[in-house]
Each structure stands twice: as structure tokens, then as C-alpha cells.
Write a structure and sequence with these properties.
By secondary structure, the protein is an alpha+beta fold. It has six helices and five strands; from the N terminus they run αβαβααβαβαβ. The longest helix has 21 residues, at 117-137. Bound molecules: flavin mononucleotide.
Length: 197
């Protein structure tokens, strides 16, 4: 089902982009240029951020480094679970090869009297959302993935994160392949309610 057409013909172009974004699970070369990537990061840095802690961090993985990331993911998963099935191990090995560029988005958690860790994770998630929407504006395909590697203590250690930091996602970026999927039909009214009495 597609979203009912927006009858507002004077919709702001930025709103039109936000309302039509879809993920692109199938991505091919080329990845974003350095100039485009710089613009995506600028958008990310404008995420709301309690106390301006700037918790967001991005590890860029492209080219042959994607193979190394796949090895890290697979080895870490086996470290976390020695009974990991071979099929799953293989899947993890190949997973970063699904796009020209993978950004590992993570939250560097600081101790702060007013900003608990969850808010720092949320700010990083907001940064990722800004980045994905900016990618959409530039015609760059993106999909946000997590899966077991995002929650792997062994992978965090390999990547140099501390136990309190969080991997927020693996952001796959590249050129969209094939047609965009339809925008799902959602009625905002289904998600809104008055204050309970
Ligand atoms: C925190 C987070 C983690 C996600 N992890 C995965 C994932 O591991 N695999 C996946 O296929 N989609 C994952 N998704 C969902 C996709 O990024 C995407 O939003 C979903 O396929 C719906 O498509 P749409 O964004 O076009 O509506 C995740 C989304 C979020 C916000």
C-alpha cells in the first residue's frame, strides 16, 4: 500500500523529502563522494544533543576494510557464542560487502549528572536519522542495520569501544539499485492520543 497523495501542493521541499524517505537494502557502487559525506556528517552534527555532549562517532569502512569488518563481526560472534552456526558465521563475514560504504555509528558515553546514557544513545540515533535523511536528499541510498554484532561485547572491544559505549547501527550507504519501494501508508492519527484522565 502506498501513502495517500499529499493534497498540499505547496509542501515545502524539505518536508516532501522527509515524508518520502525509504531505506535501500540493495546498494551498489559508487558510494558517496567525500564532499557528499562531509554534507551528511554536517547534517548528523545538528541532531538534538542534551548538554552538547556530542556522543556520536562514526567509523568509516569501505573497500577491503569491509572484508576485515566482516571477519571482526564473524569472529566476535563466535567469541560471544562458541556454538554459532557456520551459516551465520558466513553470513556475518559477507554482510559488510552489501554496500560500498558502511558507517559504524556508535555512542561514546560520558558520565554526566543530567544526561543519562540513554539520552546519549538517543542523540546518536537522531544523528543517524539526520544523516540518512541527508543521504536521501542527495539521492544516496541508505539502510540502518544492527543485528547481533551491534550488541557484541567482543566486537565493541575489537573496535576500541569501552563496555559502556554503544554501537547504534551499521549504516550502509551507496547507489540505490532498482526501484524505490512504495512509502507505507500510515495514518499519524493512529499514533496520537490525548493525555489519559
Ligand atoms: C535501530 C535500528 C536497527 C535496525 N536494524 C535492522 C537490521 O538489522 N536489519 C534490517 O533489515 N533492518 C533493520 N532496521 C530497519 C531498516 O533500517 C528500515 O528502517 C526498515 O527496513 C524499514 O524500511 P523503511 O526505512 O524504508 O521504512 C533497523 C532500523 C533501526 C532504526
Amino acid at each position: 500500500m502506498t501513502q495517500s497523495p499529499n493534497t498540499n501542493t505547496s509542501i515545502h521541499p524539505a518536508l516532501a523529502l522527509l515524508q518520502q524517505r525509504v531505506s535501500h537494502p540493495r546498494l551498489t557502487e559508487p558510494g558517496p563522494s567525500q564532499a557528499q559525506l562531509a554534507d551528511l556528517y554536517r547534517a548528523a552534527m545538528r541532531a538534538p544533543d542534551h548538554a552538547w555532549l556530542r556522543p556520536w562517532r562514526f567509523i568509516e569502512v569501505s573497500g577491503d576494510d569491509r572484508t576485515r569488518l566482516g571477519e571482526h563481526m564473524a569472529h566476535s560472534a563466535r567469541q560471544d557464542d562458541p556454538d554459532l552456526a557456520d551459516k551465520q558465521y558466513q553470513k556475518l563475514l559477507n554482510s559488510p560487502l552489501r554496500a560500498p560504504l558502511v558507517l559504524i555509528a556508535w555512542a561514546k558515553i560520558s558520565e554526566h549528572p543530567k544526561v543519562p546514557a540513554i539520552e546519549q544513545v538517543l542523540a546518536t540515533g537522531a544523528a543517524v536519522t539526520n544523516l540518512i535523511n541527508a543521504a536521501h536528499a542527495l539521492g544516496i541510498g541508505a539502510v540502518w542495520r544492527t543485528g547481533a554484532p551491534a550488541y557484541s561485547p567482543a566486537l565493541k572491544q575489537t573496535l576500541g569501544l569501552t563496555a559502556t559505549d554503544h554501537i547504534v547501527g551499521f549504516i550502509y550507504l551507496g547507489t540505490p539499485s532498482g526501484e524505490d519501494k512504495p512509502v507505507p501508508a500510515l495514518d499519524p492519527a493512529d499514533f496520537i492520543s490525548p493525555l489519559p484522565t
